[in-house]
């Protein structure tokens, strides 16, 4: 089957990660990127970072 693009830079292909959406030309799943982004956001909130970088570290 041919690659199917739904959003620029994201593609699906049954031969890559079982057809999950991936970053085009890689085997990096969109779900992994979203998971890591959510983890980073949670860490920033737990450290009290709301905008920019803090003066002191966690």
Rounded Rg? 16 Å
Percent in strands: 15-25%
Average pLDDT taken over every residue: 83
How far apart lie the N and C ends?
48 Å
Net shape? elongated
Low-confidence stretches: none
Q: What is the structural class?
A: alpha+beta
Annotation field: number of helices: 1
Count structural domains. 1
Order of helices and strands: EEEH
Report strand order across the widest sheet: 1-2-3
Number of strands: 3
Helix content: 25-40%
User: The biggest beta sheet, please?
Assistant: 3 strands, antiparallel
Walk me through the structure.
Strand 1 (4-7) and strand 2 form a beta hairpin. The chain is built from one helix and three strands. The mean pLDDT is 83. It has 58 residues and is an alpha+beta fold. A three-stranded antiparallel sheet has the order 1-2-3, with no helix packed on it.
State the main characteristics.
16% strand, three-stranded antiparallel β-sheet, 58 residues, single chain, alpha+beta
Write the layout of secondary structure elements.
Elements: E1 4-7, E2 10-12, E3 22-23, H1 30-46
Antiparallel strand pairs: 1-2, 2-3
What would you say about this model in short?
The chain is 29% helix and 16% strand. The protein has 58 residues and is α+β, with helices and mostly antiparallel strands.
